[in-house]
Amino acid sequence: MADGAELAADQHVRYIVTVEKKKDSFESLVMEHIRLNGAYWGLTTLDLLHKLHAVDAAEVVDWIMSCYHPESVQVDLEGTSGTIRMSSPRSAPCRSSASSIGSMSLTLTRLLIMSFDCKMRMDCFLVISGVKSTLVFCCVGALAIAGSLHHIDRDLLGWWLCERQCKDGGLNGRPEKLADVCYSWWVLSSLIMIDRVHWIDKEKLTKFILNCQDKENGGISDRPDNAVDIYHTYFGVAGLSLMEYPGVKPMDPAYALPLDVVNRVFLRK
Ligand SMILES: [Zn+2]
């Protein structure tokens, strides 16, 4: 793809709507256990592109409510550790402390315990192998929502995060891995929250994301020339949003939702 490529927004909208309708396809059946995640990725992308009206809201709400079972999910606020886990027979591990905190109230004591615990772990991020920027996002997002970002050494963490930018402009999840579009979100959101996003070459990252588009059929892949999927389509558009790409709605880096939604639902503005 030549320099100056643009976001193929209309094609991405068509791709998302098509995926949403293909409930009997092989891909849809093997991904059934994360279909609710898929709905979040698809709907948020449509909203970021100002095309939420492409789906029938009442139909989506009915379907989501049909997934609800009063005894299927419970939240454990574990004793003194201050961590949060979702438990249910079929629930996926809850990876986002930020989203958990955002959707429920916690006592201040628990938040403070968790913040101090995070501070100690933050200092170890540079030396622990296997730590990914997804985990960094969870911790930084949780601390941001708890108003406790002052526990982070911003320069130290910012340095580790900006080192994630590879020669091709994309970001990886940890050292010596290939760049992947989804880390555009995990890394950029954390850098924004600690006010170090200017350490990333945004122009090169934008080009990397745009090069991962299927410009004919829509959708974004993890890296150039790979097959597209709804997950990377969402994280690609979300990454562009964080870089203020024209025509894409701004997102809140901690809540991972469009800013106007956060203002309306959480902050009641
Ligand atoms: Zn990925």
From TrEMBL:
<comment type="function">
    <text>Catalyzes the transfer of a geranylgeranyl moiety from geranylgeranyl diphosphate to both cysteines of proteins with the C-terminal sequence -XXCC, -XCXC and -CCXX.</text>
</comment>
<keyword id="KW-0479">Metal-binding</keyword>
<keyword id="KW-0637">Prenyltransferase</keyword>
<feature type="transmembrane region" description="Helical">
    <location>
        <begin position="124"/>
        <end position="149"/>
    </location>
</feature>
<keyword id="KW-0472">Membrane</keyword>
<keyword id="KW-1133">Transmembrane helix</keyword>
<dbReference type="InterPro" id="IPR001330">
    <property type="entry name" value="Prenyltrans"/>
</dbReference>
<dbReference type="InterPro" id="IPR026873">
    <property type="entry name" value="Ptb1"/>
</dbReference>
<feature type="domain" description="Prenyltransferase alpha-alpha toroid">
    <location>
        <begin position="134"/>
        <end position="256"/>
    </location>
</feature>
<dbReference type="GO" id="GO:0004663">
    <property type="term" value="F:Rab geranylgeranyltransferase activity"/>
</dbReference>
<dbReference type="InterPro" id="IPR045089">
    <property type="entry name" value="PGGT1B-like"/>
</dbReference>
<keyword id="KW-0812">Transmembrane</keyword>
<dbReference type="GO" id="GO:0005968">
    <property type="term" value="C:Rab-protein geranylgeranyltransferase complex"/>
</dbReference>
<dbReference type="GO" id="GO:0046872">
    <property type="term" value="F:metal ion binding"/>
</dbReference>
<dbReference type="Pfam" id="PF00432">
    <property type="entry name" value="Prenyltrans"/>
</dbReference>
<keyword id="KW-0808">Transferase</keyword>
<dbReference type="InterPro" id="IPR008930">
    <property type="entry name" value="Terpenoid_cyclase/PrenylTrfase"/>
</dbReference>
<feature type="domain" description="Prenyltransferase alpha-alpha toroid">
    <location>
        <begin position="7"/>
        <end position="96"/>
    </location>
</feature>
<keyword id="KW-0677">Repeat</keyword>
<comment type="similarity">
    <text>Belongs to the protein prenyltransferase subunit beta family.</text>
</comment>
<keyword id="KW-0862">Zinc</keyword>
<protein>
    <recommendedName>
        <fullName>Geranylgeranyl transferase type-2 subunit beta</fullName>
        <ecNumber>2.5.1.60</ecNumber>
    </recommendedName>
</protein>
